[in-house]
Fold this protein.
Amino acid sequence: MFPRKIALLALVLWTAANLAWSIVLATRRGVEPGTAGHAGAHVPDVGAADSTIHPAPEPARRTLRLPDAAREAVLAEMRIMLQAVQGVLEAGARGDSAGVRAAARPAGMAMAADPELEALLPADWMALALSTHRAFDSLPAVGPNATAIAAGVARITSRCNGCHAMYRLESR
């Protein structure tokens, strides 16, 4: 049990370090935090357990220009998903199945019920977003096994990285 907790702690620290580095890079480049660390990257199969980021040319990243309210709604969803990842990891480290379920629920499919926002986003974005929401819904099914929870979170963050590698949000 102790090695699993160390592995989960290492995953949490790695995630926090990557987020911090993305913010540092974003500050230096003057771009939106969360996108700078993976600019020009490509994750070919976002559902794969291998979360390796493969370099790709910068033009592969697509800029989506959204109305301010829609952009803020997307960013709010991203923050909720990041909070859910944190909550799931914390609950998983405690072996708390109910906590995993409670932490994952706000980022699940119930969040993906805004037809007006969905109409503004490309189909491939929506496919990736919906698979991410479904992945959050499936996390509680793994039970209190910290290794399985960490693997589920790794698959989710692979989808996050893939989306950030493909898109950049701007206001219209």
About this structure: The chain has a mean pLDDT of 78.
